[in-house]
Specification:
The structure is a homodimer of 337-residue chains. Chain A has 337 residues and is of the alpha/beta class. Chain A has helices at residues 18-29, 79-91, 114-117, 133-149, 167-181, 213-226, 260-268, 287-290, 321-336, and strands spanning 8-13, 34-41, 49-52, 55-58, 60-61, 72-75, 95-98, 127-129, 151-160, 232-239, 246-254, 273-275, 296-304, 310-317. Chain A has two domains: 8-130 and 324-336, 3-Layer(aba) Sandwich (Rossmann fold), CATH 3.40.50; 135-319, Dihydrodipicolinate Reductase, domain 2 (2-Layer Sandwich). Chain A is 31% helix and 24% strand. In chain A, strand 12, helix 8 and strand 13 form a beta-alpha-beta unit. In chain A, helix 4 packs across helix 6. Chain A is globular, with a radius of gyration of 20 Å. Chain A starts with 7 loop residues before the first strand and ends with a helix. The interface between A and B is large, with 57 and 57 residues.
């Protein structure tokens, strides 16, 4: 358990990555009480400098000895790194908040979205996991509906931006786009196919059953966060040529009937959601508008008459903020309260 | 009814548009027996020249008198133009094959996808309609499954390219992309929001019930072509920053259980479909690969365990070819057989 202090030593594992950078920015933005910020990264980034509250801090090499006197360690360098180093951080006395997939399915690791299951974080044994970016957005948006009308089944199709893959993917989309507009050949390295002006139904590795890891994570993590394994969930995850923010088209079947207006009212009253839904004025969320925003934006709320109690909706969330960094920082804020 | 001849006088209404151009190309490519090609367009394009079989033909102005001695008139200039001029073409003795939405819901107008309901075209009264581009692709891909296992419900989310809107939309995507990469402000005119590096859950106008026309067309036209109004269909249509080809993530509930392998076998044996599905080798269809192709490409075929007899699949079709021009030419080929 975290000892209450006036300020904390906070380590960021993966400090030079897109999520790590976002965590550092959000910690500063929200005035998280930090006595010392410890940016950690692989040998490749050792010695680089990162900015924090107008200071420039040298990035240290991630080792098992790097966590001495660290109170809170954010892990954002991928599952392999979390698996290798999280135990050392816990052993050194830190609480680990992990944005990777490494521990999300462990029964003893709470998987937390503060708007949905904040209480779960109190039962940790040193590690708290933050869900997959798409699962976070879905959990925030669907929890009020599930509470009011019990969701029986969810069919979700995602539109995921390249920043979910990381810096190299951002460069790949930009580089391919420039090449194509100059009638040059493109290079593919991060993705197996052209991502510029193309959509790939492929997010993370394929599993034996033909689903991707991302699709499987959405199913499992959404159920774990909503605390209801009886919800039927099926997902198709698609990478789109967008830099930042993930969107999802969501179809719901509920036990109880809710009108589109009732869903709008429920979501408008809930924490962390912004209902942005006025098609007559062409108002619906898009990646460009939601970039840098904290809320899950929800629009295109419609009744679906192909089932008795059906609802369609469209949501957009900033995958780096609420989809990862902000959710992690909110968990830390709850820990120190 | 069309009189059988050795060759036909064929008019193209909207000859300078993206679909009109594609019809002319496909007629030449497939050696359609044409004695005279009559390209028609609005006053703005009158006098322009279009290429056909290495000849250059002058575009004439579309008027009600333009159809004298025309046997077959392809209409591809939008619903308003079809509503204004199709009757004149029929009166002049032509059979109209209309790619617009003008007559698709008329009970007496056959809505035809040759692979699915070719026989319907024989019952026309002068006009045969070709369905919405997304409905065509769905009808071709789902018909064999419906025949084998009766589809009860379809949840579809589309990824539609800008060429579905027309030439100006293609220019808008290219123009906005160039501007953004040069850190300049973008202009929006065809779409209400930025389309470059963004996805808009908005294809065609919004209706009173919150759905778009495209979403409503998919529901109605898919049922009409499959000849089964009892199928539950719900659609979310999304414009993506892709130049050509529409994709769709499709979730099916069937009366009878089909395994993913059984679906693969059914679709592989059906006309007009290419199963492209080997995730272990990163093989699944994308817009870039399917551009210029005639078949509906289907991949990511997976069983969905959230319902008793569920299947997920991903399809991609060239919206200008099979989604419009090719389907229209195939209808004409059947007429002259």
């Amino acid at each position: 358990m975290l000892k209450k202090k006036n300020s904390y030593v906070v380590a960021i594992v993966g400090a030079t990555g897109v999520v790590g950078q976002e965590i550092i920015e959000i910690l500063a933005e929200r005035g998280f009480p930090i006595s010392e910020l410890v940016p950690l990264a692989s040998e490749r980034s050792e010695g680089e400098r990162i900015g924090y509250n107008n200071k420039s801090i040298i990035v240290r090499k991630l080792t098992k000895d790097a966590f001495k006197s660290v109170d809170i360690a954010f892990f954002s360098a991928g599952a392999a790194s979390s698996k290798e180093f999280a135990a050392a951080a816990v052993k050194a006395g830190a609480v680990v908040i992990d944005t990777s997939s490494a521990f999300r399915r462990e029964p003893l690791v709470p998987l937390v979205v503060p708007e949905v299951n904040a209480a779960a974080s109190s039962k940790h044994s040193g590690i708290i996991a933050t869900p997959d970016c798409s699962a976070i957005a879905l959990a925030v948006a669907l929890n009020p509906i599930h509470d009011a009308a019990r969701i029986k089944r969810i069919v979700v199709t995602t539109f995921q931006s390249v920043s979910g893959t990381g810096k190299k993917a951002i460069d790949e989309l930009a580089g391919q786009t420039v090449a194509l507009l100059n009638f040059q050949d493109i290079k593919t390295s991060v993705y197996p196919h052209q991502i510029a002006f193309n959509c790939l139904p492929h997010v993370d590795a394929f599993l034996e059953n033909g689903s991707t890891e991302e699709e499987t994570n959405i199913v499992n993590e959404l159920r774990k966060v909503l605390g209801d394994d009886s919800i039927g969930v099926t997902a198709t995850t698609v990478r789109v040529p967008v830099f930042r923010c993930h969107a999802a088209a969501v179809n719901l079947e509920m036990e109880k009937k809710l009108s589109a207006n009732e869903v709008r009212a429920l979501l408008s009253a809930a924490a962390g959601i912004l209902v942005y839904d006025d098609p007559k004025k062409n108002l619906y969320p898009t990646a460009i508008d939601v970039s840098g925003k904290d809320e899950i934006y929800v629009g295109r709320i419609r009744e679906d008459e192909s089932v008795p109690n059906g609802i369609n909706l469209w949501l957009v969330a900033d995958n780096l903020r609420k989809g990862a960094a902000l959710n992690a920082v909110q968990i830390a804020e709850n820990l120190i309260q």
